[in-house]
From TrEMBL:
Residues 1-76 are annotated as: Disordered. The lineage of its organism: Eukaryota, Fungi, Dikarya, Ascomycota, Pezizomycotina. This is F-box domain-containing protein. SUPFAM superfamilies: RNI-like. InterPro entries: LRR_dom_sf. Gene3D superfamilies: Ribonuclease Inhibitor.
Amino acid sequence: MSTRRSARLQKLDNPEPVEVLQPPATAELVKNKKRKAPADQTGETTRGKKRATKSAADNENETPVEPLASPANGTLSSLPPEILNMILNNIKDPSSMGKLGRTCKGYHAFMMPRLHKRLSVAAMFHAHIAKLIRALEPHLTISQKKQLRREGKYKGQQERYSSKLDPFAKPVCANYVRQIVVGVVDPGRKHEGIVHRYIDEAFRNMDNLEIIETRVLTRSMGERIASQKNLQALSLFTKDADTGAMEPLGRIKNLKHLNLEAFGYNRFEVKHDKSIQSILLNSRSTLQSLAVKTSSFMSNFLQDWEKRKSEDHATTNQPHDLTALKSLTLKGQSFDEDFIKSLRQAIDFIGLRELTLRHLSEGKHLLFNYLISLTTSSESPATEISLRSLQLDMADDRYGRTPEQLQVDFETKCRFIASFNTLTTLILDDYNQYSTQIAVNPGLSNTLLQAILKHEHLRTLKISYIGIISNRKIPYLSAETVATIVDNLPDLQEFEFAPEEEEIDEIGKALSRGDNLTSLTCYPHESWAGYPRPDDPGFTILSGILQGFLSRGGGSGRGKFVWEDHFKLKRVSVHYRAWDVASKFGKPQKGMKKAQSMKSDGDGKRQVLHRDITGTFHQRIHVGYDPAYAWVEKVAGD
Protein backbone atom coordinates (compact mmCIF):
# COMPACT_ATOMS: atom_id res chain seq x y z
CA MET A 1 0.00 0.00 0.00
CA SER A 2 1.37 3.44 -0.92
CA THR A 3 2.19 5.94 1.75
CA ARG A 4 -0.15 8.88 2.33
CA ARG A 5 1.00 12.46 1.93
CA SER A 6 -0.84 15.69 2.66
CA ALA A 7 -1.95 17.88 -0.25
CA ARG A 8 0.50 20.56 0.86
CA LEU A 9 3.51 18.20 0.70
CA GLN A 10 2.45 16.82 -2.67
CA LYS A 11 2.71 20.31 -4.17
CA LEU A 12 6.21 20.83 -2.81
CA ASP A 13 8.84 19.28 -5.08
CA ASN A 14 11.67 20.51 -2.90
CA PRO A 15 10.49 21.19 0.64
CA GLU A 16 12.39 23.98 2.38
CA PRO A 17 14.62 23.09 5.31
CA VAL A 18 13.25 23.71 8.79
CA GLU A 19 14.88 26.07 11.25
CA VAL A 20 14.86 24.82 14.81
CA LEU A 21 14.28 27.15 17.76
CA GLN A 22 14.90 25.48 21.08
CA PRO A 23 12.51 26.28 23.94
CA PRO A 24 13.88 27.06 27.42
CA ALA A 25 15.56 24.04 28.99
CA THR A 26 13.40 24.33 32.09
CA ALA A 27 10.11 24.23 30.22
CA GLU A 28 8.12 21.01 30.32
CA LEU A 29 5.92 19.94 27.45
CA VAL A 30 2.41 18.61 27.77
CA LYS A 31 1.82 15.84 25.22
CA ASN A 32 -1.38 15.65 23.21
CA LYS A 33 -3.44 12.51 23.64
CA LYS A 34 -4.05 12.19 19.86
CA ARG A 35 -1.57 13.34 17.26
CA LYS A 36 -0.82 12.25 13.72
CA ALA A 37 2.75 11.18 13.03
CA PRO A 38 4.61 13.80 10.94
CA ALA A 39 5.76 12.93 7.45
CA ASP A 40 9.50 13.02 6.74
CA GLN A 41 11.17 14.47 3.65
CA THR A 42 10.65 11.29 1.58
CA GLY A 43 7.03 10.89 2.51
CA GLU A 44 7.72 8.03 4.94
CA THR A 45 5.55 7.95 8.06
CA THR A 46 5.82 6.37 11.43
CA ARG A 47 2.22 5.27 11.29
CA GLY A 48 1.88 1.73 12.49
CA LYS A 49 4.80 1.99 14.87
CA LYS A 50 3.75 1.42 18.44
CA ARG A 51 4.47 4.33 20.74
CA ALA A 52 5.46 3.63 24.31
CA THR A 53 3.05 5.06 26.88
CA LYS A 54 4.29 6.96 29.90
CA SER A 55 2.62 7.78 33.16
CA ALA A 56 2.07 11.35 34.30
CA ALA A 57 4.82 10.86 36.87
CA ASP A 58 7.28 9.98 34.08
CA ASN A 59 6.25 13.04 32.11
CA GLU A 60 6.88 15.24 35.14
CA ASN A 61 10.52 14.20 35.35
CA GLU A 62 11.07 14.19 31.61
CA THR A 63 13.55 16.71 30.14
CA PRO A 64 11.93 18.51 27.19
CA VAL A 65 13.75 17.98 23.93
CA GLU A 66 11.00 18.83 21.45
CA PRO A 67 12.10 21.82 19.33
CA LEU A 68 9.89 24.60 18.04
CA ALA A 69 9.82 24.14 14.28
CA SER A 70 8.92 27.13 12.15
CA PRO A 71 9.36 28.04 8.49
CA ALA A 72 12.80 29.45 7.79
CA ASN A 73 11.27 32.76 6.76
CA GLY A 74 9.03 32.98 9.84
CA THR A 75 9.27 36.31 11.65
CA LEU A 76 9.56 34.98 15.20
CA SER A 77 11.81 32.03 14.36
CA SER A 78 14.46 34.34 12.92
CA LEU A 79 14.83 36.30 16.16
CA PRO A 80 17.53 35.62 18.76
CA PRO A 81 16.19 33.85 21.87
CA GLU A 82 16.72 36.96 24.01
CA ILE A 83 14.58 39.11 21.70
CA LEU A 84 11.91 36.41 21.44
CA ASN A 85 11.71 36.21 25.23
CA MET A 86 11.31 39.99 25.47
CA ILE A 87 8.40 39.85 23.02
CA LEU A 88 6.69 36.96 24.77
CA ASN A 89 7.18 38.55 28.21
CA ASN A 90 5.21 41.59 27.04
CA ILE A 91 2.10 39.48 26.40
CA LYS A 92 0.16 40.20 29.59
CA ASP A 93 -3.35 39.08 28.69
CA PRO A 94 -3.95 35.50 29.93
CA SER A 95 -6.33 34.83 27.04
CA SER A 96 -3.65 35.77 24.50
CA MET A 97 -1.12 33.61 26.32
CA GLY A 98 -3.44 30.64 26.15
CA LYS A 99 -4.22 31.13 22.46
CA LEU A 100 -0.55 31.35 21.53
CA GLY A 101 0.28 28.34 23.69
CA ARG A 102 -2.30 26.24 21.83
CA THR A 103 -0.79 26.86 18.40
CA CYS A 104 1.95 24.21 18.71
CA LYS A 105 3.96 22.27 21.27
CA GLY A 106 6.91 24.63 21.04
CA TYR A 107 4.89 27.73 21.88
CA HIS A 108 3.08 25.71 24.51
CA ALA A 109 6.44 25.20 26.24
CA PHE A 110 7.17 28.92 26.01
CA MET A 111 3.81 30.25 27.19
CA MET A 112 2.64 27.86 29.92
CA PRO A 113 5.24 29.01 32.49
CA ARG A 114 4.21 32.59 31.76
CA LEU A 115 0.50 31.81 31.93
CA HIS A 116 0.80 30.12 35.34
CA LYS A 117 3.45 32.48 36.75
CA ARG A 118 0.95 34.45 38.87
CA LEU A 119 -2.08 32.90 40.53
CA SER A 120 -4.68 35.03 42.33
CA VAL A 121 -7.77 33.79 44.15
CA ALA A 122 -10.37 35.20 46.54
CA ALA A 123 -13.82 34.30 47.86
CA MET A 124 -15.39 37.43 49.26
CA PHE A 125 -18.85 35.91 48.87
CA HIS A 126 -20.34 32.44 48.42
CA ALA A 127 -20.68 33.07 44.66
CA HIS A 128 -16.88 33.32 44.37
CA ILE A 129 -16.21 29.78 45.62
CA ALA A 130 -16.69 28.15 42.21
CA LYS A 131 -14.23 30.55 40.57
CA LEU A 132 -11.65 29.91 43.31
CA ILE A 133 -12.02 26.15 42.86
CA ARG A 134 -11.61 26.38 39.08
CA ALA A 135 -8.47 28.47 39.55
CA LEU A 136 -6.84 26.08 42.05
CA GLU A 137 -7.88 22.61 40.80
CA PRO A 138 -5.46 22.56 37.82
CA HIS A 139 -2.63 22.67 40.39
CA LEU A 140 -3.95 19.73 42.44
CA THR A 141 -3.45 16.00 42.00
CA ILE A 142 -6.42 13.77 41.16
CA SER A 143 -6.19 12.28 44.64
CA GLN A 144 -6.43 15.75 46.21
CA LYS A 145 -9.42 16.68 44.02
CA LYS A 146 -11.29 13.51 44.98
CA GLN A 147 -10.59 14.02 48.68
CA LEU A 148 -11.80 17.63 48.59
CA ARG A 149 -14.95 16.57 46.75
CA ARG A 150 -15.64 14.04 49.53
CA GLU A 151 -15.34 16.88 52.05
CA GLY A 152 -17.85 19.06 50.22
CA LYS A 153 -19.53 19.24 46.82
CA TYR A 154 -19.45 22.63 45.11
CA LYS A 155 -19.80 24.12 41.66
CA GLY A 156 -16.53 24.22 39.75
CA GLN A 157 -15.26 20.84 40.95
CA GLN A 158 -14.09 18.29 38.39
CA GLU A 159 -16.27 15.19 38.49
CA ARG A 160 -14.71 12.70 36.03
CA TYR A 161 -11.10 11.58 35.60
CA SER A 162 -9.23 9.34 33.20
CA SER A 163 -8.31 5.94 34.62
CA LYS A 164 -5.00 6.06 32.70
CA LEU A 165 -3.61 8.95 34.75
CA ASP A 166 -1.59 8.61 37.92
CA PRO A 167 -3.85 9.93 40.73
CA PHE A 168 -0.82 11.02 42.78
CA ALA A 169 1.10 12.77 40.00
CA LYS A 170 1.60 16.46 40.71
CA PRO A 171 0.52 18.67 37.76
CA VAL A 172 3.39 20.29 35.89
CA CYS A 173 1.72 23.71 36.05
CA ALA A 174 2.07 23.74 39.86
CA ASN A 175 5.83 24.10 39.41
CA TYR A 176 5.31 27.08 37.11
CA VAL A 177 3.64 29.22 39.80
CA ARG A 178 6.07 31.84 41.08
CA GLN A 179 3.65 34.39 42.57
CA ILE A 180 0.43 33.77 44.47
CA VAL A 181 -2.11 36.27 45.80
CA VAL A 182 -4.78 35.05 48.21
CA GLY A 183 -7.38 37.74 48.80
CA VAL A 184 -10.22 37.98 51.28
CA VAL A 185 -11.88 34.65 52.05
CA ASP A 186 -15.24 35.26 53.69
CA PRO A 187 -17.90 33.10 51.96
CA GLY A 188 -19.70 32.40 55.24
CA ARG A 189 -18.77 30.37 58.29
CA LYS A 190 -20.27 27.18 56.84
CA HIS A 191 -18.16 27.34 53.66
CA GLU A 192 -14.96 28.94 54.94
CA GLY A 193 -13.44 25.57 55.86
CA ILE A 194 -13.58 24.10 52.33
CA VAL A 195 -12.03 27.23 50.83
CA HIS A 196 -9.17 27.06 53.32
CA ARG A 197 -8.69 23.38 52.47
CA TYR A 198 -8.36 24.14 48.74
CA ILE A 199 -5.78 26.83 49.45
CA ASP A 200 -3.88 24.52 51.82
CA GLU A 201 -3.74 21.70 49.28
CA ALA A 202 -2.63 24.03 46.50
CA PHE A 203 0.26 25.31 48.64
CA ARG A 204 1.41 21.70 49.11
CA ASN A 205 2.14 21.38 45.38
CA MET A 206 3.79 24.76 44.71
CA ASP A 207 7.50 24.37 45.43
CA ASN A 208 8.90 27.29 43.44
CA LEU A 209 7.07 30.24 44.95
CA GLU A 210 9.03 33.49 45.07
CA ILE A 211 6.32 36.02 46.02
CA ILE A 212 3.43 35.29 48.40
CA GLU A 213 0.68 37.71 49.39
CA THR A 214 -2.07 36.20 51.51
CA ARG A 215 -4.93 37.31 53.72
CA VAL A 216 -5.48 33.73 54.82
CA LEU A 217 -3.02 31.97 57.10
CA THR A 218 -3.51 28.51 58.57
CA ARG A 219 -0.97 26.38 60.42
CA SER A 220 -0.57 24.18 57.35
CA MET A 221 -0.01 27.20 55.10
CA GLY A 222 2.55 28.54 57.56
CA GLU A 223 4.49 25.29 57.32
CA ARG A 224 4.41 25.32 53.52
CA ILE A 225 5.46 28.99 53.31
CA ALA A 226 8.36 28.36 55.68
CA SER A 227 9.53 25.42 53.53
CA GLN A 228 9.78 27.46 50.31
CA LYS A 229 13.42 27.51 49.24
CA ASN A 230 13.10 30.32 46.69
CA LEU A 231 10.88 32.69 48.68
CA GLN A 232 11.95 36.32 48.27
CA ALA A 233 8.88 38.41 49.17
CA LEU A 234 6.14 37.82 51.73
CA SER A 235 3.03 39.87 52.50
CA LEU A 236 0.86 38.79 55.44
CA PHE A 237 -2.49 40.00 56.78
CA THR A 238 -2.56 38.58 60.30
CA LYS A 239 -6.00 39.74 61.40
CA ASP A 240 -7.65 36.34 60.88
CA ALA A 241 -4.56 34.12 61.15
CA ASP A 242 -5.14 30.81 62.90
CA THR A 243 -3.59 30.26 66.32
CA GLY A 244 0.02 29.16 65.91
CA ALA A 245 0.05 29.87 62.18
CA MET A 246 2.81 32.46 62.57
CA GLU A 247 5.14 30.20 64.50
CA PRO A 248 6.59 28.22 61.53
CA LEU A 249 7.39 31.47 59.69
CA GLY A 250 10.22 32.13 62.11
CA ARG A 251 12.32 29.68 60.07
CA ILE A 252 12.23 31.85 56.94
CA LYS A 253 15.64 33.14 55.95
CA ASN A 254 17.14 35.57 53.41
CA LEU A 255 13.87 37.35 52.63
CA LYS A 256 14.13 40.47 50.45
CA HIS A 257 10.70 42.04 50.97
CA LEU A 258 8.34 41.81 53.95
CA ASN A 259 4.91 43.44 54.27
CA LEU A 260 2.99 42.92 57.51
CA GLU A 261 -0.54 44.20 58.10
CA ALA A 262 -2.06 43.54 61.51
CA PHE A 263 -5.31 45.47 61.93
CA GLY A 264 -8.53 44.80 63.79
CA TYR A 265 -9.20 43.70 67.34
CA ASN A 266 -7.48 40.33 67.11
CA ARG A 267 -4.42 41.54 69.00
CA PHE A 268 -1.12 40.59 67.40
CA GLU A 269 1.51 40.74 70.13
CA VAL A 270 5.08 40.53 68.88
CA LYS A 271 6.27 40.07 72.45
CA HIS A 272 4.34 36.79 72.58
CA ASP A 273 4.97 35.67 68.99
CA LYS A 274 8.57 36.27 67.93
CA SER A 275 8.15 35.05 64.37
CA ILE A 276 8.42 38.47 62.72
CA GLN A 277 11.52 39.34 64.70
CA SER A 278 13.02 35.97 63.75
CA ILE A 279 12.38 36.72 60.06
CA LEU A 280 14.08 40.09 60.45
CA LEU A 281 17.08 38.61 62.22
CA ASN A 282 17.38 35.76 59.68
CA SER A 283 17.17 38.28 56.81
CA ARG A 284 19.15 41.16 58.24
CA SER A 285 21.72 41.09 55.42
CA THR A 286 19.20 40.63 52.58
CA LEU A 287 16.00 42.50 53.53
CA GLN A 288 15.52 45.43 51.12
CA SER A 289 12.00 46.63 51.95
CA LEU A 290 9.97 46.45 55.15
CA ALA A 291 6.37 47.61 55.66
CA VAL A 292 4.62 47.30 59.03
CA LYS A 293 1.02 48.51 59.17
CA THR A 294 -0.78 48.09 62.47
CA SER A 295 -3.30 49.70 64.78
CA SER A 296 -2.16 52.09 67.49
CA PHE A 297 -2.99 49.69 70.35
CA MET A 298 -0.69 46.96 69.05
CA SER A 299 2.81 46.44 70.39
CA ASN A 300 5.81 47.59 68.39
CA PHE A 301 7.42 45.00 66.16
CA LEU A 302 10.92 45.63 67.60
CA GLN A 303 10.03 45.18 71.25
CA ASP A 304 12.97 43.78 73.26
CA TRP A 305 15.06 43.84 70.08
CA GLU A 306 18.44 43.77 71.84
CA LYS A 307 17.34 40.83 73.98
CA ARG A 308 16.19 38.85 70.95
CA LYS A 309 19.48 39.51 69.19
CA SER A 310 21.45 38.13 72.10
CA GLU A 311 19.16 35.08 72.36
CA ASP A 312 19.66 34.30 68.66
CA HIS A 313 23.38 35.14 68.79
CA ALA A 314 22.74 37.70 66.05
CA THR A 315 25.11 40.36 67.31
CA THR A 316 27.13 42.14 64.65
CA ASN A 317 29.83 44.77 64.36
CA GLN A 318 27.67 46.82 61.96
CA PRO A 319 26.21 50.08 63.35
CA HIS A 320 22.75 48.97 62.14
CA ASP A 321 21.28 45.47 61.94
CA LEU A 322 19.24 45.58 58.72
CA THR A 323 22.20 46.42 56.51
CA ALA A 324 20.45 46.03 53.12
CA LEU A 325 17.23 47.91 53.94
CA LYS A 326 16.36 50.63 51.40
CA SER A 327 12.59 51.04 51.83
CA LEU A 328 10.63 51.43 55.08
CA THR A 329 6.88 51.92 55.64
CA LEU A 330 5.37 52.51 59.08
CA LYS A 331 1.64 52.95 59.56
CA GLY A 332 -0.39 53.25 62.76
CA GLN A 333 2.55 52.85 65.10
CA SER A 334 2.86 54.43 68.54
CA PHE A 335 6.30 55.52 69.72
CA ASP A 336 8.17 55.70 72.99
CA GLU A 337 11.84 56.00 73.91
CA ASP A 338 12.38 52.23 73.85
CA PHE A 339 10.92 51.92 70.34
CA ILE A 340 13.08 54.80 69.07
CA LYS A 341 16.13 53.10 70.58
CA SER A 342 15.30 49.83 68.80
CA LEU A 343 14.71 51.66 65.50
CA ARG A 344 18.05 53.44 65.87
CA GLN A 345 19.84 50.11 66.27
CA ALA A 346 17.97 48.20 63.55
CA ILE A 347 17.56 50.76 60.75
CA ASP A 348 19.90 53.18 59.04
CA PHE A 349 17.45 55.98 58.20
CA ILE A 350 20.14 58.00 56.43
CA GLY A 351 20.76 55.06 54.08
CA LEU A 352 17.08 54.59 53.15
CA ARG A 353 15.93 55.55 49.67
CA GLU A 354 12.18 55.33 50.36
CA LEU A 355 10.35 56.27 53.56
CA THR A 356 6.57 56.18 54.12
CA LEU A 357 5.04 57.37 57.40
CA ARG A 358 1.24 57.31 57.63
CA HIS A 359 -1.35 57.65 60.40
CA LEU A 360 1.27 57.53 63.14
CA SER A 361 -0.15 57.59 66.64
CA GLU A 362 1.05 58.68 70.07
CA GLY A 363 4.64 59.82 70.35
CA LYS A 364 5.17 60.45 66.65
CA HIS A 365 6.99 63.68 67.49
CA LEU A 366 9.73 61.51 69.00
CA LEU A 367 10.31 59.86 65.63
CA PHE A 368 10.33 63.12 63.67
CA ASN A 369 12.68 64.77 66.16
CA TYR A 370 15.02 61.80 65.83
CA LEU A 371 14.91 62.03 62.02
CA ILE A 372 15.62 65.77 62.16
CA SER A 373 18.60 65.14 64.40
CA LEU A 374 19.95 62.70 61.80
CA THR A 375 19.47 64.93 58.75
CA THR A 376 20.91 68.02 60.45
CA SER A 377 23.80 66.28 62.18
CA SER A 378 27.33 67.23 61.12
CA GLU A 379 28.04 63.49 61.02
CA SER A 380 25.42 63.09 58.23
CA PRO A 381 26.37 65.52 55.44
CA ALA A 382 23.89 66.05 52.64
CA THR A 383 26.01 63.96 50.30
CA GLU A 384 25.43 60.88 52.49
CA ILE A 385 21.64 61.23 52.76
CA SER A 386 20.19 58.63 50.38
CA LEU A 387 16.50 59.42 50.82
CA ARG A 388 14.85 60.06 47.44
CA SER A 389 11.18 59.21 48.03
CA LEU A 390 9.13 60.42 51.00
CA GLN A 391 5.42 59.94 51.70
CA LEU A 392 3.89 61.64 54.74
CA ASP A 393 0.39 61.71 56.14
CA MET A 394 -0.41 65.39 56.72
CA ALA A 395 -3.92 64.88 58.12
CA ASP A 396 -4.66 66.26 61.57
CA ASP A 397 -5.46 63.69 64.24
CA ARG A 398 -7.87 65.94 66.07
CA TYR A 399 -9.19 63.47 68.65
CA GLY A 400 -7.94 64.49 72.08
CA ARG A 401 -5.51 67.04 70.61
CA THR A 402 -5.44 70.73 71.34
CA PRO A 403 -4.92 73.27 68.52
CA GLU A 404 -1.48 74.02 69.94
CA GLN A 405 -0.49 70.35 69.81
CA LEU A 406 -1.74 70.06 66.24
CA GLN A 407 0.31 73.08 65.21
CA VAL A 408 3.44 71.62 66.85
CA ASP A 409 2.94 68.33 64.97
CA PHE A 410 2.53 70.16 61.66
CA GLU A 411 5.60 72.33 62.17
CA THR A 412 7.65 69.29 63.15
CA LYS A 413 6.77 67.57 59.87
CA CYS A 414 7.64 70.72 57.93
CA ARG A 415 10.99 71.02 59.71
CA PHE A 416 11.78 67.43 58.78
CA ILE A 417 10.96 67.98 55.10
CA ALA A 418 13.07 71.15 55.10
CA SER A 419 16.01 69.58 56.94
CA PHE A 420 17.49 68.05 53.76
CA ASN A 421 17.19 68.53 49.98
CA THR A 422 17.68 65.16 48.27
CA LEU A 423 14.10 64.16 47.38
CA THR A 424 12.95 63.41 43.85
CA THR A 425 9.48 62.18 44.96
CA LEU A 426 7.34 63.80 47.65
CA ILE A 427 3.79 62.67 48.46
CA LEU A 428 1.76 64.58 51.05
CA ASP A 429 -1.57 62.92 51.89
CA ASP A 430 -4.72 64.69 53.11
CA TYR A 431 -3.19 68.05 53.90
CA ASN A 432 -5.21 70.37 56.17
CA GLN A 433 -8.88 69.76 55.44
CA TYR A 434 -10.40 72.69 57.32
CA SER A 435 -13.80 73.38 58.85
CA THR A 436 -16.67 74.53 56.65
CA GLN A 437 -17.21 77.37 59.13
CA ILE A 438 -14.01 79.03 57.90
CA ALA A 439 -14.96 81.31 55.00
CA VAL A 440 -11.51 82.01 53.55
CA ASN A 441 -9.57 79.29 51.75
CA PRO A 442 -6.21 79.01 53.58
CA GLY A 443 -4.50 77.40 50.58
CA LEU A 444 -1.03 75.94 51.06
CA SER A 445 0.85 77.01 54.18
CA ASN A 446 3.92 79.09 53.37
CA THR A 447 5.91 77.01 55.87
CA LEU A 448 5.11 73.82 53.97
CA LEU A 449 5.61 75.52 50.60
CA GLN A 450 9.12 76.64 51.51
CA ALA A 451 9.92 73.13 52.80
CA ILE A 452 8.80 71.66 49.47
CA LEU A 453 10.88 74.12 47.46
CA LYS A 454 14.03 73.04 49.33
CA HIS A 455 13.97 69.91 47.15
CA GLU A 456 14.71 71.64 43.87
CA HIS A 457 15.24 68.37 41.97
CA LEU A 458 11.73 67.04 42.63
CA ARG A 459 10.32 65.09 39.70
CA THR A 460 7.09 63.96 41.42
CA LEU A 461 5.01 66.10 43.78
CA LYS A 462 1.61 64.91 44.99
CA ILE A 463 -0.55 66.83 47.43
CA SER A 464 -3.25 64.21 47.30
CA TYR A 465 -6.65 63.47 48.85
CA ILE A 466 -8.72 60.31 48.97
CA GLY A 467 -11.87 62.41 49.22
CA ILE A 468 -13.51 65.11 51.29
CA ILE A 469 -14.32 64.58 54.98
CA SER A 470 -17.82 65.51 56.14
CA ASN A 471 -18.09 69.15 57.25
CA ARG A 472 -14.63 69.87 55.86
CA LYS A 473 -13.22 71.79 52.91
CA ILE A 474 -10.17 71.25 50.75
CA PRO A 475 -7.44 73.96 50.80
CA TYR A 476 -7.47 74.47 47.02
CA LEU A 477 -4.22 75.79 45.51
CA SER A 478 -4.36 79.20 43.88
CA ALA A 479 -2.79 80.10 40.54
CA GLU A 480 -0.10 82.06 42.40
CA THR A 481 0.89 79.04 44.49
CA VAL A 482 0.96 76.75 41.44
CA ALA A 483 3.14 79.27 39.60
CA THR A 484 5.58 79.40 42.54
CA ILE A 485 5.88 75.61 42.58
CA VAL A 486 6.31 75.26 38.81
CA ASP A 487 8.82 78.09 38.52
CA ASN A 488 11.02 76.82 41.36
CA LEU A 489 10.95 73.10 40.51
CA PRO A 490 12.26 72.93 36.93
CA ASP A 491 12.59 69.11 36.91
CA LEU A 492 8.97 68.51 37.92
CA GLN A 493 7.36 65.83 35.73
CA GLU A 494 4.34 64.59 37.67
CA PHE A 495 2.20 67.03 39.66
CA GLU A 496 -0.98 66.25 41.61
CA PHE A 497 -2.92 68.90 43.54
CA ALA A 498 -6.40 70.27 44.28
CA PRO A 499 -6.90 73.37 42.08
CA GLU A 500 -8.93 76.46 42.80
CA GLU A 501 -11.38 75.89 39.95
CA GLU A 502 -12.31 79.55 39.60
CA GLU A 503 -8.66 80.24 38.69
CA ILE A 504 -8.19 77.26 36.36
CA ASP A 505 -7.40 79.44 33.33
CA GLU A 506 -4.54 81.16 35.18
CA ILE A 507 -3.46 77.84 36.65
CA GLY A 508 -3.24 76.43 33.10
CA LYS A 509 -0.95 79.28 32.05
CA ALA A 510 1.23 78.76 35.12
CA LEU A 511 1.50 75.02 34.43
CA SER A 512 2.50 75.68 30.83
CA ARG A 513 5.81 77.04 32.11
CA GLY A 514 6.70 73.57 33.39
CA ASP A 515 9.00 72.48 30.60
CA ASN A 516 9.26 68.90 31.89
CA LEU A 517 5.68 68.27 33.03
CA THR A 518 4.35 65.01 31.59
CA SER A 519 1.38 64.21 33.86
CA LEU A 520 -1.11 66.40 35.76
CA THR A 521 -3.79 65.31 38.22
CA CYS A 522 -6.22 67.94 39.53
CA TYR A 523 -8.34 66.38 42.25
CA PRO A 524 -10.53 67.19 44.08
CA HIS A 525 -12.06 70.30 42.54
CA GLU A 526 -15.14 72.27 43.51
CA SER A 527 -17.49 71.19 40.71
CA TRP A 528 -16.81 67.52 41.52
CA ALA A 529 -17.67 68.01 45.18
CA GLY A 530 -20.53 70.48 44.66
CA TYR A 531 -24.22 69.83 44.24
CA PRO A 532 -25.83 69.65 41.80
CA ARG A 533 -22.90 68.18 39.91
CA PRO A 534 -22.50 69.38 36.29
CA ASP A 535 -23.10 66.99 33.41
CA ASP A 536 -19.42 66.73 32.52
CA PRO A 537 -17.41 67.39 35.70
CA GLY A 538 -13.71 67.59 35.12
CA PHE A 539 -13.84 68.77 31.53
CA THR A 540 -13.55 72.37 32.73
CA ILE A 541 -10.23 71.39 34.32
CA LEU A 542 -9.00 69.78 31.11
CA SER A 543 -10.08 72.75 29.01
CA GLY A 544 -8.47 75.31 31.30
CA ILE A 545 -5.15 73.47 31.38
CA LEU A 546 -4.94 72.83 27.62
CA GLN A 547 -5.97 76.40 26.80
CA GLY A 548 -3.25 77.65 29.13
CA PHE A 549 -0.67 75.61 27.23
CA LEU A 550 -2.06 76.57 23.81
CA SER A 551 -1.94 80.26 24.72
CA ARG A 552 1.85 80.24 24.68
CA GLY A 553 2.69 77.39 22.30
CA GLY A 554 4.06 78.21 18.84
CA GLY A 555 4.10 81.94 19.36
CA SER A 556 5.71 82.65 15.99
CA GLY A 557 2.71 81.28 14.12
CA ARG A 558 4.94 79.93 11.31
CA GLY A 559 4.52 76.33 10.20
CA LYS A 560 2.14 73.70 11.48
CA PHE A 561 1.72 73.58 15.25
CA VAL A 562 2.86 70.26 16.72
CA TRP A 563 2.15 69.81 20.42
CA GLU A 564 5.18 67.60 21.05
CA ASP A 565 7.54 70.24 19.66
CA HIS A 566 6.63 72.61 22.48
CA PHE A 567 5.43 70.55 25.44
CA LYS A 568 6.03 67.19 27.11
CA LEU A 569 2.59 66.95 28.71
CA LYS A 570 0.96 63.64 27.77
CA ARG A 571 -1.81 63.11 30.31
CA VAL A 572 -4.33 65.15 32.30
CA SER A 573 -6.42 63.51 34.98
CA VAL A 574 -9.07 64.41 37.51
CA HIS A 575 -8.64 61.06 39.26
CA TYR A 576 -12.01 59.64 38.15
CA ARG A 577 -11.35 60.57 34.50
CA ALA A 578 -8.18 60.80 32.45
CA TRP A 579 -7.23 62.05 29.00
CA ASP A 580 -4.20 61.47 26.80
CA VAL A 581 -2.93 64.57 25.01
CA ALA A 582 -1.06 64.64 21.69
CA SER A 583 -1.04 66.03 18.17
CA LYS A 584 -1.67 62.56 16.76
CA PHE A 585 -2.81 59.26 18.25
CA GLY A 586 -2.30 55.72 17.13
CA LYS A 587 -4.93 53.01 17.02
CA PRO A 588 -7.21 53.25 20.10
CA GLN A 589 -7.23 50.43 22.62
CA LYS A 590 -10.30 48.82 24.08
CA GLY A 591 -12.03 51.23 26.47
CA MET A 592 -10.71 54.41 24.82
CA LYS A 593 -13.10 56.96 23.36
CA LYS A 594 -12.75 58.78 20.07
CA ALA A 595 -10.20 61.59 20.11
CA GLN A 596 -11.51 65.16 20.18
CA SER A 597 -9.73 68.32 19.10
CA MET A 598 -9.34 71.61 20.94
CA LYS A 599 -8.21 74.85 19.34
CA SER A 600 -6.63 77.83 21.02
CA ASP A 601 -9.07 80.50 22.09
CA GLY A 602 -9.08 83.69 20.08
CA ASP A 603 -6.98 83.01 16.96
CA GLY A 604 -7.66 79.25 16.70
CA LYS A 605 -4.23 78.76 15.07
CA ARG A 606 -3.08 76.02 17.44
CA GLN A 607 -4.80 72.70 17.96
CA VAL A 608 -4.30 69.62 20.12
CA LEU A 609 -6.11 66.28 20.42
CA HIS A 610 -7.34 64.78 23.69
CA ARG A 611 -8.66 61.24 24.13
CA ASP A 612 -10.65 59.93 27.11
CA ILE A 613 -8.89 56.78 28.35
CA THR A 614 -10.88 56.27 31.56
CA GLY A 615 -12.26 52.95 30.31
CA THR A 616 -8.79 51.42 30.14
CA PHE A 617 -8.19 51.61 33.91
CA HIS A 618 -8.65 48.78 36.39
CA GLN A 619 -12.16 48.82 37.81
CA ARG A 620 -11.92 48.81 41.58
CA ILE A 621 -14.48 46.08 42.15
CA HIS A 622 -14.19 44.87 45.73
CA VAL A 623 -13.42 41.16 45.42
CA GLY A 624 -10.94 40.93 48.24
CA TYR A 625 -7.74 42.18 46.68
CA ASP A 626 -6.48 45.06 44.62
CA PRO A 627 -6.71 44.13 40.91
CA ALA A 628 -3.59 46.21 40.25
CA TYR A 629 -1.42 44.04 42.55
CA ALA A 630 0.54 47.15 43.58
CA TRP A 631 2.81 45.47 46.13
CA VAL A 632 3.37 42.35 44.02
CA GLU A 633 4.25 44.40 40.94
CA LYS A 634 6.69 46.53 42.90
CA VAL A 635 8.64 43.70 44.49
CA ALA A 636 8.55 41.66 41.27
CA GLY A 637 10.38 44.54 39.60
CA ASP A 638 13.35 43.88 41.86
